[in-house]
Design a protein that fits this description.
alpha/beta, 11 helices, 12 strands, elongated
Length: 413
């Protein structure tokens, strides 16, 4: 019996070692957890996190398809403002609606202690005035609450509206939102005013200082998307922008953008952690292999497999060669795909004659995916997880076998 006890102890220790090397199994994450994960991935890796952002969005879709769609648009726009969006200077660009469906939204700026406006805010208003002259049917929304230390009655929006009227802008074209204390509240409160009192407006152009345009557009657009989602109402989006040239360096970091997105999502603890740099940085999924298939309509499809277990269609991004959908006989199809410094390839032999006609009923015994699928490249790092798992399985079998043998000896002895 002592010998059996020793074997059981050894088996338990072996299993403990085995399990400690396996990925942790987490409880199902809430939608808020997943939204936080989206933000953490982007603030850490930006465009390099595209695969993991899509993976998390897929998980979010399983819980709430509509929320996943909204956050997919927010993440796409976040990428857009940091990669492709043009900051228009001094006046709104050409091509915007030339009717009353357009509204210029002017973001406020902290007032002087006595309630007067600073030069930067007047600069933003000059851009708004010039844009309003260019689009004479558009509305102008002035936003911002009380920020004057010695004058509690003064608000940014009221001061802005008064200046525009002094410059000759028709008061009927001016919309005032004077309760907000942040860009996030600007967007939320302005959305309510526009939907309740100006239902004809469906196109917005944001006006602020040049350095603030990316973050302002991001936060405004995100809040507008979520407001429409929460209210089940018409969607308003930021379609363009115009920036006042502030004349000083005013870069607003990705972390500052993320802080605002966290506040919009109600993730205040994560916002604080991002601000002080103590948030948990997620791990990027690593590309480990490719899989090529030929569809029934003779199109090449390439999917990427990652060490996280996620699979993604990368056909549009892959380098594909060797396939002619009209050719006869066997063909060797090759695909390569690179992501975050890892390049993988695969090859497959196919024969178009063996591919089912999509107009005919499918034969379950027919394989139209080709034969001899082979990876072109692999390395020890890519196969380490599989090898480790196999080793653990072997250890388990050996330990179990040893236990059976010992038990038989004990019974026979």
């Amino acid at each position: 019996m002592k010998r059996i006890s020793k074997v059981l102890c050894a088996l338990f220790m072996s299993l403990s070692v085995m399990l400690s090397g396996l990925p942790a199994i987490h409880a199902q994450e809430s939608t808020q957890d997943l939204i936080g994960e989206l933000i953490r991935y982007y603030v850490t890796y930006q465009e390099s996190a595209e695969t993991d952002i899509q993976r998390v969005l897929d998980e979010l879709e399983e819980r709430d398809a509509t929320e996943a769609e909204v956050w997919g648009q927010i993440m796409d726009y976040w990428s857009y403002v940091n990669t492709e969006m043009k900051v228009n200077l001094d006046v709104a660009p050409d091509g915007l609606p030339n009717d009353n469906t357009l509204c210029f939204v002017v973001l406020g700026y902290q007032l002087n202690p006595d309630g007067s406006m600073k030069d930067e805010l007047i600069g933003r208003l000059q851009v708004a005035l010039d844009s309003a002259k260019k689009y004479p049917n558009a509305y102008v929304a002035c936003t911002g609450g009380g920020t004057a230390a010695d004058n509690p009655d003064a608000t940014e929006a009221d001061q802005m509206a008064a200046w525009l009227i002094e410059q000759g802008l028709d008061p009927e074209r001016i919309i005032v939102e004077n309760k907000s204390s942040s860009t996030v509240e600007n967007a939320e409160f302005t959305y309510r005013i526009l939907r309740e009192s100006y239902p004809q407006i469906d196109s917005l152009a944001l006006i602020t200082s040049d350095y603030h345009v990316p973050r302002g557009c991001l936060l405004y657009n995100a809040r507008l998307l979520l407001s429409a989602y929460e209210a089940g109402d018409k969607l308003l989006t930021i379609d363009s922008n115009a920036g006042y040239q502030a004349g000083h360096e005013g870069y607003e970091s990705i972390a500052l953008q993320a802080n605002g997105v966290c506040q919009i999502a109600g993730l205040y603890d994560l916002a604080s952690q991002i601000s002080d740099g103590t948030y948990e940085q997620p791990t990027l999924s690593r590309l480990i292999s490719l899989n090529i298939t030929i569809t029934a309509d003779r199109q090449v499809q390439v999917k990427a497999l990652y060490d996280s277990g996620y699979t993604r269609d990368v056909t549009a991004l892959a380098e594909i060669s060797g396939y002619d959908p009209d050719a006869e006989g066997k063909q060797t199809v090759t695909a390569y795909y690179s992501e975050n410094g890892v390049r993988k390839g695969a090859t497959i032999v196919v024969d178009n004659a063996a591919i089912e006609d999509p107009s005919e009923p499918a034969d379950p015994d027919t394989d139209d995916k080709g034969e001899g699928q082979k990876p072109i490249e692999s390395d020890d790092a890519d196969t380490a997880a599989a090898g480790q798992a196999a080793g653990y399985a072997l250890m388990g079998v050996m330990a179990a076998g040893a236990l059976i043998v010992m038990r038989r000896k004990a019974i026979n002895g």
